[in-house]
Amino acid sequence: MPSTDAVVxxxxxxxxxxxxFNVVDAYGHISRRDPENPKRFLLSRSKSPELxxxxxxxxxxxxxxxxxxxxxxxxxxxxxxxxxYEANPEIMSVVHSHALEVVPFSISTVPLVPMMHVASHCGxxxxxxxxxxxxxxxxxxxxxxxxGRDLAxxxxxxxxxxxxxxxxxxxxxxxxxxxxxxIYLPQNARVMMDAMRLGGGFKPLSAGExxxxxxxxxxxxxxDRAMEYWAAKAGASHLLPPRK
Length: 244
Ligand SMILES: [Zn+2]
What we know:
This protein has 244 residues and is of the alpha+beta class. The chain has one domain: Class II aldolase/adducin N-terminal domain (L-fuculose-1-phosphate Aldolase), CATH 3.40.225. The protein is built from 8 helices and 7 strands. It has helices spanning 4-20, 78-87, 103-106, 131-135, 145-155, 175-198, 207-214, 223-233; strands spanning 29-33, 40-44, 57-61, 93-97, 128-129, 160-163, 167-172. Strands 3-2-1-4-7-6-5 form a 7-stranded mixed sheet, with helices on both faces. A hairpin with a 3-residue loop joins strand 6 and strand 7 (167-172). Helix 1 packs parallel to helix 6 (175-198) and helix 2 (78-87) packs across helix 5 (145-155). The longest helix has 24 residues, at 175-198. It binds zinc ion. Zinc ion binds next to loops.
């Protein structure tokens, strides 16, 4: 099991990576379940991901309350993470993003599906969660635990849930896996949109193709190579241990 210090540094690196690849901007976040206490999770204080440092990482309980006594301002939408960790014990890392490429599929009846091999880990089914179904008119943000739990119910055992008119939440077993899902999901949405513009039919990955790719474990083969590259591009290599 990695040390908490190593995990905190990895979370900071993951924030920089998501920002570098335009998955997040001023908003959006990534968390990791606490390696020392599965009933807690680690998430930055309210800060734009590109600017996150290890010392910004706070500890939260699964109800979204601050667990470490810090007085820093937390993210309003920390309940996305709280709800998903509470509902899914096997989930170790969660991303929330407003990536533009994904949003059209959250307001359309056309389902977003994996179209290319690098997006296979997004899963065959990406449900759309509409906050209005249960909560009526809101600011669309997930600002309490009841909303986070409702999102987690829609996500169920899938890896991605689109959030209507808002973005997506992705869940994985490692930070690397959820980074890979979150980086390639918007690219997959762009490719699918381009294929639809061509006007003919399109062919997503088959269930068998996804199963073969999943057989290499969370995030697929050579994920460590991608982590090394992503961190270098994002100027965050110093936050990760050297690759063996
Ligand atoms: Zn949001």
